[in-house]
Amino acid sequence: MNVKNLQLRTFRNYKEQFVTFHPQMNIFLGDNAQGKTSLIEALYVLAFTKSYRCQNFRELIMFGEDFSKITAEISQKQRTINLAMILSKQGKKMQINDVEQQRLNEYIGQLTVIKFSPEDLELIKGQPAIRRRFLDIELSQASPNYFLALANFQKMLKQRNEYLKQIKIDAIYLEIIDESLALQAAIIYQQRKQFIDDLNVILQPIHGQLTDGREQIKIKYQHDLGDFNTEDDIQKMYQLLLKKNFERDRKLSSTTVGPHKDDLAFFIADKNVKQFGSQGQQRTTVLSLKLAEIEWLASKKGEYPILLLDDVLSELDDQRKIQLLNFINDKVQTFITTTEMNDLLTKVTSSYTVFTVNNGQLLEVGERTHDTKL
User: Fold this and answer.
1) CB neighbours of residue 373 within 10 Å
2) Residues 315 and 259 grouped into a single domain
3) If you compute the radius of gyration of the chain from its CA atoms, what whole number of angstroms results?
4) Residues 151 and 238 in one domain
5) Mean pLDDT along residues 248-270
6) Do residue 85 and residue 195 come from a single domain?
7) Which long-range contacts (CB under 8 A, 24 or more apart) does 171-174 make?
8) Residue 278: is it exposed, middle or buried by C-beta count within 10 angstroms (0-12/13-18/19+)?
């Protein structure tokens, strides 16, 4: 998969911009606050219909304008499609080949994306919500069924929490809510467990390569349930948990067990990386995880996703930069934002195009193939 071109209209500080991309690597060079990250963000918004930089999508619309539009031509393995996101003060519209889409689960996954930015280093030491978001983003891109189950679960969870605030509780009605909640939770639990099992298989040799075989890594999926096999088993166990925790939930007016409380833990040599890992180990773990994500998503979609490296190279030491760039060489279409090129150029072996970014203006300044130098 690759993005052939991108068109922006009144998006952030881009009044009107059209750019054709290199199929391997695209480097956006410029000072801070000039619009480099906005290009990465536009591709992310096109993939997920939301930004990773702000909660309110209206912030993406250029000041003083009524709407913003992102359009891109996407080359998939068997076809080329046009995706568009239109953002206005009235709401969002998503289009595939100029046809408006009503279902998010049918739109998400048309453009598959792995993002790596400095904030992702918090995957190890940050709050559980960050790791749950990681699970949800990756699984939603690969499985429309997961995305739909997650949306339904969140809707039913909100309904249950509101009902717990009532003075009188109808046991039969609560049982109906719990059954519906457990049905969606079962899909989420099962797919998260399978994802972690699959990811561990991919992750271990990658991490071993990055550490010259010195470290063995494993991810553990932490949840409220015991051992389970089928979705039917999960549903029954979760319903029992909801019933068991009813009094506590009633007191707190909140559902205290379920996939919205899940977490991940990363272990190297049976030691929790969050608690006992050095900063170098934590960063290598995140790098290994991102590289494993790429391979996992490729195995599920039948083609590699695009990779967005938003100022992350400045956070990695020389060794990890080289490991990352060598891994993606000629494999994944990559978009890199950076304020400094000299150090980067010595480590890039892919063909690439360099763009300078200055106050919302994008200018192609050169291209390198395997046979030429910029």
Assistant:
1) 7
2) no
3) 22
4) yes
5) 96
6) no
7) 174/246
8) exposed
